[in-house]
Each structure stands twice: as structure tokens, then as C-alpha cells.
Amino acid sequence: MSRIDRCRNVEDFRALAKSHLPSPVFHYIDGAAEDETSYRRNTEAFQSCDLVPNVLAGVKDVDMSVTVMGQKLAMPLFCAPAALQRLFHHDGERAVGRAAQKFGTMFAVSALGTVGIEEIGRTISAPKMFQLYFHKDQGLNWSMVERCREAKFEVLTLTVDSITGGNRERDLRTGFTSPPQLTLASLASFALHPSWTLNYLLREKFSLPQLEGHVSEGTDIAISIGDYFTRMLDQSMDWSDAEEVRKRWGGPFCLKGIMSVADARRAVDIGAGAIMVSNHAGRQLDGSRAPFDQISEIADAVGGRIDIICDGGIRRGSHVLKAISAGATACSGGHFYLYALAAGGQTGVEKALGNLRGEIERDMKLMGVSRLDQLSRDNLRYR
Questions:
Q1: Active-site residue list
Q2: Which of 5, 152, 172, 214 can pair with 1 through a Cys bridge, CB separation 3.0 to 4.6 Å?
Q3: Domain boundaries, the chain
Q4: Taking the model in full, what pTM does it have?
């Protein structure tokens, strides 16, 4: 049995990823802002809520499919956008896209992604979401929107919680930048991970192809992600800008980083088809509320008018069922597949998705439901 086969949960993949990656790269995936309170709370929030199952329900056949932003997904969990993926494994987004395709779910490509929009559009048939960061360079913004349209991406998502960088103290301690720099502090860790180092040095040159021709930071000029957000993104972005992005895109449009009822209502008002209830995995505002804790009140306000995606903290199939019971349409996450990507490329991501799909199916049966729309708050109790 391979080490990947022995990974039965997210923590197993985390441990294997830690052994594969140089310290600065691992801690970039693993870390969050300041005291990392929100990062921990994102998962702990699910532990404060219990499921109440029903029995004798005839659940031999289970349908876990869901429609999100007009896309039929075979499971109610998809791969959220994440930057810099070829630093975690040399295949990066290619591996994640192929795994998502195999499992019939959606995956997202970041504006700070390491495989180009055009290649993903040509090679991946799974539903594709693009995550737009709204830059000061308006030409870059509209170029990315147009490239996504030409590459036939299904969904455009505007991230709205990152107009300045979070205080990611782990990155400051390790000296993590994009592209990585060899420093006295990091040299030993790179030397102790020769497989990663050789892949980085000898394979395809690291780049951020969505930014080429517009921005050198992150590809040719080393910079931390926090500094990139602060220097390069437009801090004057407002609701009129979000509406302009939606109009220029013209297709299914989502806002990522919505946490309040008021903002959820504004998202409906500007014509968004979905919101990702997200605190950026606790990497921006530490002390922000966990996404799961906000699902019920947001669903009460806008449920039925807009798709609600619970993004963050997902570690188990039961977490997905709790979020859907509270009012989410579906869930998304990054850590569950990024650790797996680092641990084993496409094989790792497939194993992670397979683990969670198996948990969702088994837990649905144990809950006494054969369809996701049979879940409701009647089967939740909060401590």
C-alpha cells in the first residue's frame, strides 16, 4: 500500500505534505493571519453543531448531485481557487483539474495561478471557475475577463475580501515569497527536500501566466502574497466595480468573501448568481467569524434567490452535510486538496476527493436521506 493509499483524511495528507515540502512552502499552505484564530475556528465551528439522524428511510441509492451556478456537479463539494499551485507540485492546476474532472465536480483557477487560462480551457472539461483579483491595472482586469470568456470558463468569481494583505506572520518568519528565494534561513529546508528543489529548478519555469504582460511582481520580482495584495490590488474597489465586472463578464457571476447579511443582499441586488461565504481561510482578517456560523442567517435573508457556498474549514463529509442542512447550496475548500496535491499530485487529489465523496455518501445514508434536498435545520442541534 502506497503512502497516498494510507491517507484516509485531511490530517493524513497534511502530514505527508509537510514531509514533501520545504518549510516556507508548507507553511504558506498551512498558515493564516496573526494568531490564526479564524483559521482554527473555521473547522471547530462544525464541532459546535450536532447532526440528528433519521432511520428506516430506504437509502440504498443515494444522489449527492447538486446544481451550482447552473453547473450540475456529481458531489456537493468543489475545489476552491488557490494561488501558486505549481509550488506545491510540479503539475499544479493541471493535476487538480484532471482530478475534478474525474469526480464530476468544479475546480477554480486563481488570477495568481500557475497554469494559463487558455491551457485549462483546452484541456479540462470539468466545470471551471476563474477567481478574479481586482487589480489597479484595469487593463489586466478586463484582459483576464475576456480570456476566460474565450476559454469558455463557466463561472467568474470576484474575490472581495483581499484589497489589502492579511498579516500572515508565518510567511514573515519563513521568508516565503513568490517566486521563492533562497535565503540563509530557508537554504537548509530546500536542501533537505531535493526532490522538490530539483522539480522546481529543472522543470517548467515558474510563472504566473494570467499576469504576463502586465505585472512582474510574483514572477520576476519576488514578493510576499500579503505585499502583493497591498501593492497591486485596487483598494478603492466598491459595489459599482463589482457590478461592472458582472456586466462585462455576462455569465454566471459569484462574489467570494461575503460574510454579512447586508453584503449578501447587495450581491443579489447587483445580479450575482452566487456568493462564497468565506473568510479566506482565516488568512485575511483574524478574528472574523467562521463561514459555517454565518450560513443560517445568510440563507434566511437570501436563500432561494442566490446560490450560497460555504467555503472554508471543510475536513469531513459530515461538515458538508451540516452546511447544506444550515442552508448552503454546496461547499468548497482549499486545504483538503492542496495538502493532497503536495503529497501526491493528481493521485493525491483524486484520493482526497474520493475520501470525501465516500464520507458524504456514507453519512447521507446514516442520516436517513437519499437526496441533499432532504436535509434541513430540523436535523441540526447547536450546543
A1: 280
A2: 5
A3: 10-382
A4: 0.96
